[in-house]
């Protein structure tokens, strides 16, 4: 399969979503500032990433991580592990250039990993049984990243992973994001959307409502935005 290039404009657009505290635009989203819209020098040096089945390369052609660096199975918890690392699907570099979030897939499952650039040792971060994973926005301090998980039935949820608190299993590393009314929503309304990071908290939307997730406390509260 031919390598797929991640468009640099996508990284810029994601950075532009970071909340500035300014009034919302007409579409209800906050406008970008010059500071938050600008891509970091680290990202600029690495992007656009070239994502192939077997390798992820930086803009200069250097290999950042190979599929051989990824464990053959991902440990969901202490009891279960699954095959989900046959090929790369997606990658995103942190704003400070120190971390790489990657998604791999197997015969039926998808996995999310965090890779410390200097070590090239992927750590388990997210897992979706029989579905798909994509990468959401990084926090502006490069500490946390969002993985977007789509189940086989079509529901979409969010997982936040803290690069400083990685464990040996997905269960240890992942922080599922759920609104207080999650169980009250019908399945077709459980479509979570990560909007932006602000002051270390994640703004997201589900069921037509906007919420804020605090990864330090695990608290979810209604957004005032």
What does this structure look like?
The chain is mainly β. The protein has a single domain, classed as Neuraminidase. The chain has helices at 8-16, 34-37, 41-46, 170-173, and strands at residues 4-5, 50-51, 55-57, 63-66, 73-75, 81-83, 87-93, 99-105, 110-116, 123-128, 132-138, 144-150, 156-162, 174-177, 193-198, 201-206, 209-213, 220-222. It is globular, with a radius of gyration of 17 Å.
Helix content: 10-25%
CATH fold-level name: Neuraminidase
For this structure, what is the CATH class? Mainly Beta
Strand order of the largest sheet: 1-2-3-4
Q: Would you identify the CATH architecture? A: 6 Propeller
Written as H for each helix and E for each strand, in order along the chain, the element string is EHHHEEEEEEEEEEEEHEEEEE
Number of strands: 18
Q: Roughly what fraction of the amino acids lie in strands? A: 35-45%
What's the domain count?
1
* Structural class determined from secondary elements: mainly beta
Compute the average pLDDT. Answer: 83
Q: Report how far the terminal alpha carbons are from each other.
A: 43 Å
Largest beta-sheet details? 4 strands, antiparallel
Radius of gyration: 17 Å
List its salient traits.
disordered N terminus; four-stranded antiparallel β-sheet; 225 residues; Neuraminidase; mainly beta; 4 helices
């Amino acid at each position: 399969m031919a390598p797929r290039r991640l468009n640099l404009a996508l990284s810029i657009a994601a950075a532009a979503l970071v909340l500035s505290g300014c009034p919302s635009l007409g579409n209800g989203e906050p406008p970008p500032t010059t500071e938050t819209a600008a891509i970091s020098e680290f990202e600029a040096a690495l992007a656009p990433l070239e994502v192939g089945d077997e390798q992820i390369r930086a803009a200069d052609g250097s290999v950042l991580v190979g599929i051989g660096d990824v464990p053959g199975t991902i440990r969901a918890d202490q009891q279960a592990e699954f095959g989900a690392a046959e090929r790369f699907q997606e990658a995103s570099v942190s704003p400070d250039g120190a971390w790489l979030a990657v998604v791999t897939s197997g015969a039926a499952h998808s996995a999310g990993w965090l890779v410390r650039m200097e070590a090239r040792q992927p750590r388990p971060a997210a897992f979706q049984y029989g579905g798909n994973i994509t990468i959401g926005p990084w926090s502006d301090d490069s500490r946390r990243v969002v993985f977007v998980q789509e189940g086989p039935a079509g529901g979409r949820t969010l997982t936040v992973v803290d690069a400083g608190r990685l464990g040996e299993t997905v269960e240890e590393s992942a922080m599922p994001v759920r609104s207080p009314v999650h169980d009250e929503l019908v399945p077709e309304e459980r479509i979570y959307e990560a909007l932006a990071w602000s002051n270390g908290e994640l703004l997201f939307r589900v069921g037509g409502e906007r919420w804020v997730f605090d990864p330090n406390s695990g608290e979810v509260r209604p957004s005032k935005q």
